[in-house]
């Protein structure tokens, strides 16, 4: 037996050994059956030469076996036998049968020819007549009774009491509906809560029992115009003629000397005779008291400089001069501090148009002929 025949017997299907299928982990999962295609016909091997004879397959002694194909081929070497076809492997699972929906039986009316004939001696049953549809019943007509019929129906012979005729409805105007008056519900009156009194804003109050103010009034009789308080701050208003002397006495006061000048500012009351209001804020480190002193001046009147009393008044007065144009008599170097020296006008005055500015200065220094509006 040659090697070719041994290989065929060991693997009759000619396929590789199939691996064992893995069971799916999902419960109830069933893989789809694979549809096998028709295998191509294998080429038949060339017939062996007549001279060579195939060896017989050894048969087991226990069971009598029928002569195999090799034995028959060996017995009759003259006859050419076709090559043995490989056996098909048995299917492990049958193909699933698809359930088809059962068709509904067709019901048709029997023809006259298909009706079974009656046996001899018996009469054929008469054909049943078709039922006619019942006609619809007409609705009974109801008519109104006359006066004579109503009198005849009465048993006692007495006419029934005449019913009162309904009142004729008046035409309702379009777009208006009658308003039904509903009774008012009586609710218990709620007590109104008293409104909280609104807090008044801070206001100016006259100073009372102020020892410093009383001492100034005695020192300068008729020159102290008023003394007020606003948010805990004292405000003294004095005449312009005694402004320098009052400020000097406040700095040299024995009990509360005001040794620090905080700020100097001004206000413009355009149209008034005394146009400018000077405001000085001074502070005492000994008594920790803040004081404000006011005095009004007309336009062009010189204001006494406080640089000899407080050195900090130097730059503060220069700023007031730069913005308002107020002149201070006795100032060591009164000139502009914010704007250039050749600037025309004072920006914080109410008659100064801030949109126009100084066209000549812009033209000379910035080389701009006309500024945009």
In short:
The protein has 373 residues and is an alpha/beta fold. It is built from seven helices and eight strands, in the order αααβαββαββββαβα. Strand 5 (276-284) and strand 6 form a beta hairpin.
Give the helix tally: 7
Unreliable stretches, pLDDT < 50, 5 or more residues? 59-65, 72-79
End-to-end Cα distance: 121 Å
Main beta sheet strand tally, sense and closure? 6 strands, mixed
Order of strands, widest sheet:
1-2-3-6-5-4
Structural class: alpha/beta
Radius of gyration: 67 Å
Overall residue-averaged pLDDT value: 76
What's the CATH first level of the domain at 205-334? Alpha Beta
Q: What name is given to the CATH topology of the domain at 205-334?
A: Beta Polymerase, domain 2
What is the CATH superfamily classification of the domain at 205-334?
NADH:ubiquinone oxidoreductase Nqo5 subunit
Got a strand count? 8
The CATH architecture assignment of the domain at 205-334 turns out to be: 2-Layer Sandwich
Run of helices and strands = HHHEHEEHEEEEHEH
Structural summary, described in words:
There is one protein chain. The protein is 16% helix and 12% strand. The chain has 373 residues and is an alpha/beta fold. It has a six-stranded mixed β-sheet. The longest helix has 12 residues, at 313-324. The two termini are 121 Å apart.
């Amino acid at each position: 037996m040659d090697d070719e025949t041994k290989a065929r017997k060991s693997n009759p299907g000619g396929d590789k050994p199939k691996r064992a299928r893995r069971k799916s982990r999902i419960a109830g999962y069933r893989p789809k059956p694979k549809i096998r295609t028709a295998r191509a016909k294998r080429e038949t091997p060339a017939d062996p030469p007549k001279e060579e004879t195939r060896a017989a397959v050894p048969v087991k002694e226990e069971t009598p076996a029928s002569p195999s194909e090799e034995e028959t081929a060996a017995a009759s070497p003259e006859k050419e036998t076709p090559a043995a076809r490989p056996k098909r492997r048995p299917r492990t699972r049958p193909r699933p049968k698809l359930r088809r929906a059962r068709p509904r039986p067709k019901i048709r009316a029997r023809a006259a020819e298909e009706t079974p004939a009656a046996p001899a001696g018996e009469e054929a049953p008469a054909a049943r007549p078709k039922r006619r549809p019942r006609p619809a019943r007409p609705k009974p007509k109801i008519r109104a009774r006359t006066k004579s019929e109503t009198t005849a129906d009465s048993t006692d012979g007495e006419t029934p009491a005449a019913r009162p005729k309904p009142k004729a409805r008046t035409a309702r105007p379009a777009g208006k509906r009658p308003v039904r008056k509903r009774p008012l519900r009586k609710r218990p009156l709620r007590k109104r809560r008293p409104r909280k009194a609104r807090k008044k804003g801070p206001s100016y109050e006259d100073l009372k029992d102020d020892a410093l103010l009383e001492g100034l009034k005695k020192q300068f009789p008729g020159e102290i115009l008023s003394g007020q308080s606003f948010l805990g701050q004292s405000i003294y208003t004095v005449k312009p003629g005694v402004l320098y002397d009052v400020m000097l006495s406040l700095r040299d006061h024995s009990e509360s000397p005001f040794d620090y000048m905080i700020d100097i500012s001004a206000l413009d009351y355009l149209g008034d005779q005394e146009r400018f209001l000077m405001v000085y804020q001074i502070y005492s480190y000994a008594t920790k008291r803040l004081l404000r002193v006011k005095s009004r001046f007309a336009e062009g009147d010189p204001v006494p400089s406080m640089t000899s009393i407080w050195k900090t008044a130097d730059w503060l007065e220069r700023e007031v001069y730069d913005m308002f144009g107020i002149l201070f008599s006795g100032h060591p170097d009164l000139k502009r501090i914010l704007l250039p020296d050749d600037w025309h006008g004072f920006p914080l005055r109410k008659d100064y148009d801030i949109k126009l500015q100084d066209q000549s200065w812009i033209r000379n220094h910035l080389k701009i002929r006309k500024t945009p509006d």
